[in-house]
Amino acid sequence: MFLKKKWLIVTVIFSLALFGAVIGRWAVETVSAQNGYEELRTFTEVLTFIKKSYVDEVKTKDLVTGAIKGMLQSLDPHSGYMTPDAFKELQVETKGEFGGLGIQIGVKDGLITVIAPIEDTPAYRIGIKAGDKILKISGESTKNMALTDAVSKMRGPKGTAITLLIFREGWKEPKDFTIVRDIIRIKSVKSKTLGDGIGYIRLTQFQESTSNDLTSALEKLKKEGITSLILDMRNNPGGLLNSAVEVSEQFLPPKKLVVYIKSRNGEKTEYYTEGETKYYAEIPMVVLVNQGSASASEIVAGALKDWNRAIIIGVQTFGKGSVQSLIPLADGSGLRLTTAKYYTPKGISIQGVGITPDIVVKLESKNGKEHVVVREKDLDRHLKNEQQKEGPEEKETVPSEVEDKDDLQLQRAIDTLKTWKVFEKMKKAA
Question: Is the pTM value of this prediction over 0.85?
Fold first, then answer.
């Protein structure tokens, strides 16, 4: 893994192409050194028997690709093999624009499961909910389907339709959802003022442009006279690590540790804030998180919490504390391989656990419409946390939709900042 900051990301880390060219030789040498030749011989024997005796003729490339997919699929929910087309799509996605449906997915009980739909996308508009089980994609069963294969099948040109067979808890039988693909343009930063000098920033994802877009939004709010800020990262699935560090730089003084990552052999790499102290690093601040806040969102929330920079309000976050490396292979395909875990400034691993808010506020359904919560610990083959015990498995549900007036988490954030200002005035008077 190459640890140059600009290439490091939470869900994928872009490595040098040279690594892809030498990894095959390295793997063979390592296996041989560890007396693994017998296992490789067994694989070769199986491949030979299939080529010679299987009822239908099969291509060697297809067999090897299937074996690689199975090998990666046996590791953890975030490792996988990508075809050349899928590899290209993944690089496009980090720029915030791609053709598809607009859902974040994982694997639970061997089935592709919706973690969260992305706002203002075809899947969101048609009513796909977190916790939905995708039983079939265009008639093909998803039982034991690799996550990368499911993503590839749901991606496609704008205007083309795809049918998902969905089962939702509480339904007697699954239902078909026919969704027309669109260009998914994710505007990662939204902002507005809430009155009383309170600014509001919504981060929906961490992309290449997120830091610059955030700077522009904050400058605009500053001109409008904000004296406190709410940073809303609810249902933000994460993204680029360097973007998470740059976002943290807006709210922390320079030379503050944001996050560090540690590989299996104990190699440790730290990431600090840079530049000068900004106006927003000194004003009262609240961060909103929920069960859909994952990865890069948890890095930012963890850094701000550990440095006592902001009050965290909401519910326990998703709990993805692992780092993936994207390794390009010679034929244009690639591996997404989990290579490290990340830790907050205080050295806390949130893998499978998540970040606990300073103030826990749960949302209540006003219309009886709820969906099941899916977290990292619910995904098949997730990595265990060496520091903390995961909570007991229990069914959690949250409202499918909440209007602003019923958003208790947002209202608590506003009340907290108003109270903060009252106490500041009392201090000055004293």
Answer: no
